[in-house]
Each structure stands twice: as C-alpha cells, then as structure tokens.
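Hi L., both proteins are below.
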Amino acid sequence: MDFKGRSGNYVRQPTGYSAFIPKDLPPDPDLQVDSEMQSLLSRADRALGRLDGSIQTLPNTDLFVMMYIRKEAVLSSQIEGTKASLNDLLKAEAEIYDHEIPKDVDEVVNYINAMNHGMRRLSELPLSVRLIREIHEKLLHGVRGHKLQPGELRRSQNWIGPGGSSLHSASFVPPPHEVAAQALSNLEKFLHEDDHIPPLIKIGLAHAQFETIHPFLDGNGRVGRLLIAFFLYEQKLLLSPVLYLSHYFKAHRQEYYDRLQATRVNGDWESWIKFFLTGVGDVAEQATETAREIVSLREQHRSIISDRFGNSAGKANRILEYLYRRPMVSINAVRDELGISYPNASALVDKFVSNGLLIEITGQARNRKFFYAPYINLFSNL
C-alpha cells in the first residue's frame, strides 16, 4: 500500500536539509479496517478484558502493578541503550552497594518516578501537553540528558540516525521545533476528540504520531511508550496501568522502526496499526498468564509455610505478603515489620531461605539482604 503524502511530506529547510512536516490525525484517506485488522482489534480487546479481570483476582493489585512497572522501566530504558537489569534496579532500591550495578540504573528509577507521577496527575488533569512535559521532566531529572531541557519542548532541530550522522545523513528528521509544538497540541486534541475511532486504534495512531513529532531533545521514545499506558488507563480500558509494550517493541525492534518509518514515507498506517494491535494482544496475554502464576505461587508458598513453619506460620504469612509489596528484605526489616527481636527475625528468615523462598544476595556475613527470587523470576522471564 502506498499513500505517499498521506502522513505528511519532507520539506526543504533554509539551511539545506529536509525535515518531515506531519499532517494531523486521523489519516486522510481514512484508515482501511480490513478483516485482518478487525480480527486483531477483537483479539486485543478480548486480551485486555481478560487481563483486567485477572488483575482483580490478585491479593493486592498494586503489588503486581509496581513490579510490572519496574520491569517496564527496565525494558523501556534498555531500548534507549541502558544496561541496568531488573535485579540491578531491585538492588539499587534495596540500597545494596554493588560495583557491578550499571550507573544508568538511575535512568530506570526515573522512569518509575515518571510513571507514578503521571498516574497521580491523571486524577487531576487530562492526558495533555502539560502532563507530557511533567513526565519528561521527571524522566530526565539528574541523569543522562538532564542538560537537554527536561520538561521543555525543544527549541532546536533534532534528528534520528546512527552515531555520527548529521541532519543531512539522518535516517529521519522530525519537524522544526515551531511546527512540532503545534503538531503536539493538535495531537492532544485528537486524543480527546469525540469520534468513532476505537481506543486501541486511536492510541496506536497517536503513539506513532508522537514519535514522528519527536518534541523533545531526548527521552521521546520513553515518553511515547508511557503515553500508551496512560491513555488506556484514562479511557478505563484497564482499571490498573498494566499494559506495557516495551517488551514487544524490544523483541521486534527493527520492525518497530520500519513500521513507523513506513507511516511517514508511504503513508502506510494500516501495517503499523496491525503491528501495534498484535503487540497489544501478545503482551496482554503474557501479563494475564503472569497474574495467574502469581496467584498460584502465592498459594504454593502459603502451603509451604502452613506445612513447615509450625508456630511461626502466622508471622511468616505476614512477611510473605510484605514480599509482594517489596520483594527484597533484610532481617532488620522483618524485625520492624513484625515487632519481634532480631534473633527471632533472623531465625524466621533462615526458614524462608531453607525452604527456597528467599535467597541471600550480598554474600556478606552482616547486613545481609534477601530477594524473593521465585516472584522476581516471574518478571525476569517476561
């Protein structure tokens, strides 16, 4: 399919390079929803519904959400070149000193802060340019890119391409900054327009348009991926923000970039939307299975505690619930959580370790800290 000019056109700028000037959404001619796209949309809608239902069966929805956000933060940041893993992030949160933890773990922490900030703010204001700017500021605060106008729309030209490329050799040159600002404002209007576009198709179009506008000097990819979760939550397609596509985009990175570029060069919105809907369906199904595995894991571990922990089973179950809030723990934390002596807390932790529920991660004799590895592994394998 070739609709050149449907999404916009390259326009030569006074200094000699060409920048892409996008047309506003929705596409014109209208998106062609064939039987394949309709099938993918139906599958994605069903998968989201099952995911939402599965999340409600969890002992505490917020626990799953926080762990899932951690995983998304890691994957979304890795797409942008960070090296930090989920275990690195958890160690950083537990304040465990490890010289092998990549320094860019702070970028992952910022991603979590940006996500949490956005979710709080959605109760006060709509998904908007203002909120996008706030998210961006949180994302780049004090890390790589902090000198590139955090929270501010760019005031200069940017471009996308391999290292060493220039405006004249870039893979893609977004619109000049004054055009980008207006295009972003128009995108906000499109998101809230009362039309008949299915929400999943609307956010698929909007994500691609945001990446084309590229309104910031850094962090566009991460903000663009966050917008998907925020929109689905705002539209009440999900009661909790638990659909994150970074895993899918990372696994299909080249196709992701190719499909985005095809919307610009050939006006091929249809192939992009089919790719996007496939990702929504795949990721929602994976997340649903993870939610089921969490319920099963919790029941298995409650049975182990009931069978093997004797008189300390009640206290052990309280720590088990604690571990779903924070899957890393110290003996001092157990002592404080239960209000018991240090020796008793140490003995309880030892029972968790001997039964395979916790693993010690510092390798130290003192100030030991432990991971709830069986739970963490459910997300590490995503």
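That was the first. Here is the second:
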Amino acid sequence: MSKSVSNQALDQAFINARTFNSFSETPVPDEILKQLYELMKWGPTSMNSQPGHFVFVKTNDAKQRLNSTLLTGNKEKSLAAPVTVIIASDTQFFNHLPEQFPAIPNAKEMFENNSEFSQATAQRNSSMQGAYLIIAARMLGLDCGPMSGFDNNAVDAEFFPEGRYKSNFLINLGYGDKSGNYPRGPRLSLDQVTRII
C-alpha cells in the first residue's frame, strides 16, 4: 500500500491551486515541458489508448496563429502566457494498440471498425490526459489556465490540416500572477454530488 503524499503536495496540486488568468514574464523552458509530458503520460487511459496529442504553443508566430481562433476574452491572456497547450485527440489512436495494449489482440479492430466508439474513447481519454497534464504541471511548480473559449474548427484547420487530430481544449501555462485571479468560487458539497452505496 502506498503512503499518502504530504499535505504540501495536496495543497499544491488541488487545495490551494487556482486557475490563473495572468502570468509572469518568466519563460517556461522546453526541458520543463518535456519533463511535464514524461510525468503526465503515466496517467491511466482505457486500454492504454493514450489518444492525447499535445501542441505547446510558445513562439510569437505560433501564438498569433492560435490567437486568431480564440474568443475575444481569451486573446490577451493567451498571448501573454508563456505557453498555451492545445489538448487534442488522435482519431487514429487505435493504430498504436497492438504495441500499447497487447493483452487484447483485436483491440485495434474494435475501434477501427466502430467510429462512434472510437470517437467517444478518444474524446474521453484525451480529456483525462489534459487533466493529468494540469496536475503534473502544478506538481512541477507551474500554474495553469484551462480554457474552452475558441473555435475548434479554426484550430484544427490551422494546426491539424491533415485531419488526424481534433482539438479538445486549451491550457495556458506559466508562473502565475495572482493579481489576475478572480475570487475563488465555491465547490459543491459532498452531500450534493455523492452517494456511498
């Protein structure tokens, strides 16, 4: 049985963590982004499918391309963030299953021959992988600003013109500036959303 992590770790990943709208000008080195992926990749996905695809938008040119796809309220903060990650789904994730999940020899065919099942699996599991990325980033000392205010079709046309990948959501990454935070919203209570049966 693993031991519970420290209260400091829980605070950093969940309890005191916030969604950030503003970031300092401190850059996020590529080595940190590589470390981020190497940590978050261990989060579980169904049949080890790993459909997440991640584009770390850092350069001014790439940021301008992304900016054209954002809703007005997300433009300024995304341009100012050191990095914006496009969390996307690989619509052909099943091609990796013979190596990634050999326990079921026909796993690839299960998805390849059922587009509805494949799309639902890609969407669900890339969403989970995006959540793992947020937690991993917080554990590495980064702050996050996840967003859904953008034109998915425009992002896909700009960054995935071959059609294989489909954007899911975005995350601004960097070292947060608390002055841009809204007052923290309440969370639903245990009694409101849970049952133990």
